[in-house]
Amino acid sequence: PVNFLFLLPVFFLQMTKSVTNPEELGGLASQMTNDYGHLALQGRMAAATAEPEEIGFQIRTRVQELGHGCIFLVQKAGALQICPTDSYTKRELIECARAVTEKVSLVLSALQAGNKGTQACITAASAVSGIIADLDTTIMFATAGTLNAENNESFADHR
Predict the structure, then answer these.
(1) Which of 9, 10, 24, 90 is deepest in the core (most CB within 10 A)?
(2) What CATH number does domain 1-114 carry, 1.20.1420.10, 1.20.1740.10, 1.20.1530.10, 1.10.10.10?
């Protein structure tokens, strides 16, 4: 689900830019519909495994609300394709895209609440990877002899 959630702001920008090129809206709406279908499936699994059960309910509810927002967005895109010069429909499309983006942030917060332990592990793994990369870089420079020694000892003595 995360892929769709991070791509949605891009859809928002594309939708709002497509107000001047309504012929592009059909493809964007189709792509968003497919991606939402994947999100709904993943969201159902995340809700089923979330602890506590209240978090699972939040995930399920927020994914459904996002789906309703996506439906309205697709409908407005279709209306703008029918009447590409209607400024009222253009404003409605932009407002729907903004509402969908807000709903995405709610889904993300629900997913994060259900995966606090997972997020902590990801953060820790990222920090450890950074430390390992720094150590590897230091070892590489030390092996090459580019680090200044404080005395006449070599890196091999300390390795």
Answers:
(1) 90
(2) 1.20.1420.10
